[in-house]
Amino acid sequence: MATLKKHPDNSPPTLMLRMSVSKAQELLRTQAERGRKLKAVTINNKEDYRVADAQLDKWREYTRDLLIQIFNRQTVGHEFFHVGSPSVIMGPNSLAEDIQDYQRYLQYSLDKLDSIIERVALYPVASDQVSSSSDPSNTLELIARRFPLVVRQLRQRRQDRNTLDVEDEYDVQDLLHSLLRLFFDDIRPEETTPSYGGGSTRMDFLLKKEQTVVEAKKTRKGLTAREISNQLIEDIARYQTHPDCRFLVCFVFDPEGYIVNPDGVERDLSHPVNDLTVKVFIAPKGH
User: Fold this and answer.
1) What do you get for the CA distance between the two ends of the chain, in Å?
2) Domains of the chain, each with CATH number or no CATH
3) How far is 181 from 125, CA to CA, in rounded Å?
């Protein structure tokens, strides 16, 4: 009889994502928005309440199943589903009590889901989900999210030996190049881009086989989020005409936290533009 393999210390496995951070956030935000629409439901009588309560149950069940698909442990989905159980009142409830239970239960669920969404970026992506064969963005997102940790570790050398300290954009590019070598074979730095706006420029890295361009930037004092966004918009326009570019990944290293709303910048700029798939990753976050 086959036996299940247990964790060496019998503790549950580390909580991980079964998809990219950006995909998980997109799915959960969409589901949260659907839940908020339930707050606007008008309940005038018991039949209205019955219909609204059934819709709430369907939304919560779908959210539970979605969380089970996103995380490698089912506990996240089940913990969400059992949050804020309605109060138990002996005898039939009045309509006012039903409405109060409905609104309270919905709000508890939304608060729990919002809390999960805020913490999604803290969890690593499971290694079996990181693949560079078709869409390399999962791999590149993993590198981007872990980049600040690598920088921190490099500063902890033994006996105060010299190390690479990431102080400017060139340092970001040098370290990023080394990390790309772990996952990609054909990396072409400083390829010339097609002419745009009267002249050509050089891209940071071209992953030839994956048809992906990687641009790296570092924030600094005086470089506003608006200027960073404008630079990324120019990059997106430029690479639409590049014959070897189907994916554009822009990594912004922001160790001082100059970008106040990194999630907003990522969300505004990470979307398909004609035939070009664009992903923007900013790290670290949470300043």
Assistant:
1) 51
2) 21-122 (no CATH), 130-283 (3.40.1350)
3) 19
* Mean pLDDT of all residues in 183-192: 79
Token reading at 11 = 């503790």
Closest CA to 133 of 189, 168, 185, 81: 185
**28: nearest Cα among 106, 73, 87, 80:** 80
**Cα–Cα separations (whole angstroms), residue 198 to 166, 201, 238:** 32, 10, 11
Model confidence over 14-40: pLDDT tens digits?
888 888 888 888 899 999 999 999 999
Which pair of tokens denotes residue 114?
Answer: 């919002």
Judge whether 139 and 124 are in contact, CB under 8 Å.
no
- Read off the tokens for 112: 């729990």
Distance in angstroms (rounded) separating the CA atoms of residues 32 and 164: 42
pLDDT at position 112 is: 93
- Cβ neighbours of residue 233 under 8 Å, at least 6 residues apart? 269
Reading the block at residue 4, the tokens are 């299940």
- Would you state the structure tokens that stand for residue 287, as one six-digit string? 């300043």
- Mean of the per-residue pLDDT values of the chain: 82
CA 267, CA 273: separation in Å to the nearest integer? 14
Total-model pTM: 0.56
- What is the C-alpha separation between 223 and 259, in angstroms, rounded? 9
The partner residues of 253 in beta bridges, in order of sequence, read 218, 283
